[in-house]
Write a structure and sequence with these properties.
Elements lengths: L4 E6 L7 E7 L3 E3 L3 E2 L6 H13 L4 E11 L6 E9 L6 E5 L7 E8 L10 H20 L1
Parallel strand pairs: 1-6
Antiparallel strand pairs: 1-4, 2-3, 2-8, 5-6, 7-8
Protein name: NUDIX domain-containing protein
Keywords: Hydrolase
GO molecular function: hydrolase activity
Length: 141
């Protein structure tokens, strides 16, 4: 499976773990995700997308969480667990330079209280897959 989308995953350092999500002004709650450019590795694309969509520029990939077939428009997502060097606020807004200059509102959600009803079905499936992957990783480490 060759990925064409990169998805950086940022978890809180506090327990119970929370995941970073954002509200798109027209498309509901989402994970950061974007196209892997020609010649770019999925991990590099994940960090670029994180910076473009959230303003977080001081992150690094700490684990490859594998690929997932989204079953939507031929998208195969590559998930990358990212660690951010500085503490992040509970919520913030970031105006993108791409995606029509939308303002995205970022927030943290507990993994066992995800806002599925506010997500497009593809993001509902992506979050469910990601929770299974994270849970599996915790059991094996």
């Amino acid at each position: 499976m060759r990925p064409n989308k990169a998805c950086p995953v940022v978890l809180s350092s506090s327990l119970p773990a929370k995941i970073l999500l954002f509200r798109h002004p027209q498309a509901g709650v989402q994970l950061v995700k974007g196209t892997i450019e020609k010649g770019e590795t999925p991990a590099t694309a994940a960090l670029r997308e994180l910076a473009e969509e959230s303003g977080i520029a001081n992150a690094r990939v700490i684990q490859d969480l594998g690929c997932w077939d989204a079953g939507h428009l031929g998208q195969v997502w590559s998930f990358h667990l990212c660690q951010v060097e500085d503490a992040l606020p509970e919520h913030w807004s970031h105006q993108t330079q791409d995606d029509h200059g939308h303002t995205f509102v970022f927030f943290w959600a507990y993994l066992d209280e995800l806002p599925y009803s506010d997500c497009h079905p593809v993001f509902q499936r992506a979050l469910a897959h990601l929770c299974e992957t994270l849970e599996s990783n915790l059991r094996t480490h």
